[in-house]
Amino acid sequence: MATNIVFSHDCLLLDACCAINLHASGHMEDILKAIPGTVALATFVLDEEILRSNLQSFVERGLIHTVSPDSEAEEISFVNFAVALDDGEAVTGAIAMHRHWGIATDDRKAQRVFARTNPGVQLLSTPELLKYWADTHNPPLEVVREALQNIQTHASYKPSATHSLHAWWRSIVRLP
Could you give the residue ranges of the DSSP H alpha helices within the chain? Predict the structure, then answer.
């Protein structure tokens, strides 16, 4: 089953959970290079929420751009989102909403909030980013399996049984 993901925004803003998962994969550079357009991370998320993952080298090489709220509207939306979400997801959602960027998050509550408040935003998840990378750049199956297993082991993430790519993920990880 080939990917049907079309990136509909110029920039994809990662939240902490996706950034941590991609880093844990051991193949973050290749995955980031596969994503068309710009990949960004809120400075707050980089400085305050991703403590174990050192992403500075990805920033220095231009693979991840850092952004902060730069308008009163973004600041107000940040505060409004923070009522329902943690600060990292709130700042990510606020920036993406006002700049018309996509969001990569695995947090289901954040996905619901963003979809409700900004129905035009593209919401992607770790499995979708990994599937896109696997389908468009054709790394060896063993490399994809290693990336998925690394995410499960080092980031304690695997897609829920209701995720549209749960069966794909499971089939790759369980192959002999």
Answer: 16-24, 28-34, 43-44, 56-60, 72-82, 87-99, 108-117, 126-137, 141-155, 166-174
